[in-house]
Design goal:
Blueprint (H helix, E strand, L loop, with lengths): L1 H9 L6 H5 L5 H7 L6 H15 L6 E3 H4 L5 H8 L5 H4 L1 E3 H52 L4 H17 L1 H17 L7 E4 L2 E8 L3 E6 L4 E5 H4 L5 E2 L7 E9 L4 H16 L10 E8 L3 E9 L9 H19 L16 H9 L9
Antiparallel strand pairs: 1-2, 3-4, 3-7, 4-5, 5-6, 8-10, 9-10
Length: 362
């Protein structure tokens, strides 16, 4: 583990620009030209350089012919699958390439932080175990050498029991934290989790505490002994996740309009294979007060919710559904309300006494 940590910490996320500019240079020259990416801005700069050196002059995308200059056919086929929308067109857009390289940088950064925190936790545990072993070895050595009599041993045992009684809860907390970090280990640094209904990202893991970063960048510290008994939802370790959008239409909406709406929604989902799986369903959930029909659209993402892109995808889907409703003519009307108007004679008399002129009753 220590060797792995040193390797990851000691090596940077390198760019391929130097290789692409001069393929005949030696490995030593490449290492001298190479540099480490330490920020998201540097990752974007590196992506720009790589794209400029791989793509044709003035081109806005990288195609298979560009990649075949540096990779084998099998490697190109596997490489294109990493980019959004490239598998269908065979072309990698500039914005998609930038986004991919920044994502790689963030994943590597999370890996480095995770390894560093694991190393720190192991070092803390090592110190704790070493202290206990030293104490046990001292007592055993004194017993073997005959320096401890029975009375002294009984006295030391009583003191140990007293200390155990005083710090029993602390020992229990430490033991639960060790079990949580090294046995359960429900998340790593960078994972997006939901705890107590709050969505947070793991910022730092220690032996006794874990630091989370909330959506508003507020840091929340949780004792690991408390997290042991809490249900934790981990988006990063989840498979492709599903979602739903519920809406209501007027009960008078015709079946032709509902069918047209379903076809339009299906066409939209199939036009975005990088975002949505084609399998989906539009169901009627119920009818309320004979004027409102509740419906639900159930779709599957091509990802889990670790990247935080769910909100943007759902927003685009809702905007598209609004367009579909407008174009198909699906609306919702509030039911008519009866209004009762009653003539009150006393009001007329009072108004007449005050000198007001009222129209004659009909």
């Amino acid at each position: 583990m220590k060797g792995l940590v040193e390797v990851v910490r000691g090596t940077g996320l390198s760019t391929l620009s130097s290789i692409l500019e001069e393929t005949e240079e030696t490995e030593e020259e490449y290492r001298q030209k190479d540099y480490e990416i330490t920020s998201e801005w540097e990752a974007k700069v590196a992506a720009h350089k790589v794209f400029r050196n791989v793509a044709k002059t003035g081109s806005k995308y990288i195609d298979e012919d560009d990649l075949l200059r540096f990779l084998k056919k099998e490697e190109v086929d596997n490489f294109i699958l990493l980019f959004e929308g490239a598998s269908a067109t065979g072309k990698i857009k500039r914005s998609v390439f930038w986004k991919w390289l920044v994502k790689v940088y963030k994943e590597r950064k999370s890996l480095v932080h995770s390894l560093n925190d694991t190393k720190t936790a192991i070092e803390e545990l090592n110190k704790l175990v070493s202290a206990v072993l030293v104490l046990v070895m001292i007592v055993a050595w004194l017993l073997v050498m005959g320096f401890l009599s029975t009375q002294v041993l009984v006295f030391i045992s009583s003191q140990i029991l007293l200390v155990g009684f005083m710090f029993g809860s602390t020992a229990k907390t430490v033991f639960e934290a060790i079990v949580f970090v090294f046995v359960m280990h429900p998340f790593d640094v960078g994972d997006r989790c939901v705890i107590d209904g709050i969505q947070m990202v793991v910022e730092e893991m220690n032996l006794l505490t874990t630091v989370f970063l909330r959506y508003d960048n507020e840091k929340i510290f949780y004792p690991n002994s408390v997290l042991v008994g809490k249900p934790i939802s981990n988006f990063c370790r989840s498979p492709e996740m599903s979602d739903s959008v519920e809406f209501s239409v007027d009960v008078s909406t015709s079946m032709d309009e509902i069918g047209a709406m379903k076809d339009r929604i299906k066409g939209y989902l199939e036009s975005k294979p990088q975002y949505w799986r084609p399998a989906h369903s539009v169901l009627v959930l119920g009818i309320e007060d004979m004027n409102k029909m509740h419906m639900g659209l159930y779709i599957s993402h091509t990802m889990n919710f670790q990247s935080g892109e769910r909100g943007g995808r759902i927003s685009d889907l809702m905007v598209e559904m609004k367009k579909i409703f407008e174009e198909v003519g699906i609306k919702y009307h509030l039911p008519p309300q009866e209004v009762h108007v009653r003539y009150v004679g006393g009001l007329t008399a009072n108004a007449a006494g005050s000198g007001a002129v009222l129209p004659p009753p009909r």
